[in-house]
Write a structure and sequence with these properties.
Layout lengths: L5 E8 L5 H13 L3 E8 L3 H9 L3 E5 L2 H6 L1
Parallel strand pairs: 1-2, 2-3
Length: 71
C-alpha cells in the first residue's frame, strides 16, 4: 500500500473558523501527499464549508454524529 492510499476522516462540529479549524486545514494540507484527508463537518455554516473547500480540503456536511455513523 502506498502512503497516499491511506484515508483519514476527521470529524468536527464547529460554527466558525477558529484556531482548531485552521490547524485542521494546515494538517490536511501538510499531509495530503501521504494520506487522503476528508473532513466531515457536523451542521456547519455554509461559509465554513466554503472555507475548507477553498483551501482544497475535501469536506462533506453532515446533520449529526448519528447521521455520520450511518454514512
Amino acid at each position: 500500500m502506498k502512503a497516499a492510499d491511506i484515508a483519514i476522516t476527521h470529524v468536527i462540529h464547529s460554527s466558525g473558523f477558529y484556531g482548531a479549524e485552521r490547524m485542521l486545514v494546515d494538517h490536511c494540507l501538510a499531509t495530503q501527499q501521504y494520506v487522503k484527508n476528508t473532513v466531515v463537518l457536523i451542521t456547519p455554516p455554509e461559509d465554513l464549508l466554503k472555507r475548507f473547500s477553498g483551501y482544497g480540503v475535501d469536506c462533506v456536511s453532515c446533520d449529526s454524529l448519528s447521521h455520520f455513523i450511518r454514512m
